Amino acid sequence: SQQVCEGLAVSFSVVATGTTLNYQWHADVGTGFTNVNNGGVYSGATTNSLQIGNSTGLNNVRYQCVITSGGACPVTSSAAPLVVNARPLAVNQTQNACENTPGSGVATVDLTALNAAIASNASGITVAWFINAALSSPVPSPTNTAATNNSVFYASVTNNSTGCSNSATATITLSNRPNGAGLIAGATSVCIDEEATYTISGITN
Fold this sequence. Notes:
205 residues, mainly beta, four-stranded mixed beta sheet, 17 strands
């Protein structure tokens, strides 16, 4: 049997000895074995190695191969199932943050605070953070990461039992801090039941 994560390619192979060997792969989706034809996700249907380009939707499909010698004397291999493990759910997230100091345009964020949400609160999951979509450059310090407005970080969400993974993004939306020394202007005293207006100036952002 073969185990594979959903969407990945997989292959089955058979070894036979003899002369003028011919191969025909069969698949059983639950209604009995029928010939596998090349096309769609399949190739190599008449060779000793059946290639499946995409395993999605093929969980528990059983495969076997019929081998003949010059078209005669068929021998059928044992049947082997394909086990397709689902990828964990990964949900894109947006985090709001305030810049560290007014006018800096930089915030410090804790990406690990998004782990539960990005993995849909599933158990048995590991989340790793990266700075690129190829998931090849880890974030040096996920708990203390510098970000600017619309910075995007990439999370790899892995099921610990199957090893299957999925990915999602976290986008940082940055808000500016007010800057300057506020000056309040208005009446220094008012009579009871009278209205007064006060204004503040000297604040930017």
